[in-house]
Amino acid sequence: MNRLRITDRLKAVRERAGYTVRDFARALGYGEKFSSYRTYETSYKKEELPLAMVKTMLPLLVGRGDPPITPNEVWNLAGVTAGVVGLATPAPAKPPPPATVPEQDYGNQVAIPEYDVTTSAGPGMVPELCAPQDGLRPVEHWNLPRGYVAAFTEAPDMLAIIRVAGDSMEPDYQAGDRVLVDTAHRVPSPPGVYVLWDGYGLVLKRLELLPGMDEPRRVRIMSINPAYSVYELTLDEISINGRVVGKWTWK
């Protein structure tokens, strides 16, 4: 018997728990951008879901449905098995394929758009968002080998490039740096550097999703420069445009 694809398994357990796509996406922290979650049920290519995502699903799914969903069913979406005390242990590993040197198809390029918006690494005043679906016209395209870009994101066609302003993320991010943003990654898990609209401007900050079950979830928003204060907002008070996965450094 053929094993169900991960997309079908995720959809089945979500429906069994009684969630609509929109409600489940909101519960996972996607806000109104439920289409970003929907890709995991429709076009996700890997055999297992990201472990961090499955950890977030656990309290939302376990015990719901008929019969009640078990922790092991949820952990299995990430390819791990739940122990009796809730610890995850890796499932039996598949035998590794014979060692080969992969051939990179450098003729297959991805055109990454650069947008004429500036993320303020400090208090910002730019209301536009950087994601392609938000309607901005790119000012330039950067062509990079798709095989190379795939090492940084599962969605190369959702990458965007924008410039940094301000000094709150120094020394890691300097004014004028161009950063590569994965606009498909709009949930601050795991913690990292993200581009977001915080109600005042488009900013580049380190985000950390705070633990807890209260909705909406709270997010800690941090600068690297110690001269700037840490602050907290709820997920419905911000709009995350994507996770920073790289930057260009010129010497």
From TrEMBL:
SUPFAM superfamilies: LexA/Signal peptidase (SSF51306). It comes from the Bacteria. Pfam families: Peptidase_S24. Keywords: DNA-binding, Transcription, Transcription regulation. Residues 149-245 form the Peptidase S24/S26A/S26B/S26C domain. InterPro entries: Cro/C1-type_HTH, LexA-like, LexA/Signal_pep-like_sf, Peptidase_S24_S26A/B/C. Signal peptide: none annotated. This is Transcriptional regulator. GO terms for molecular function: DNA binding.
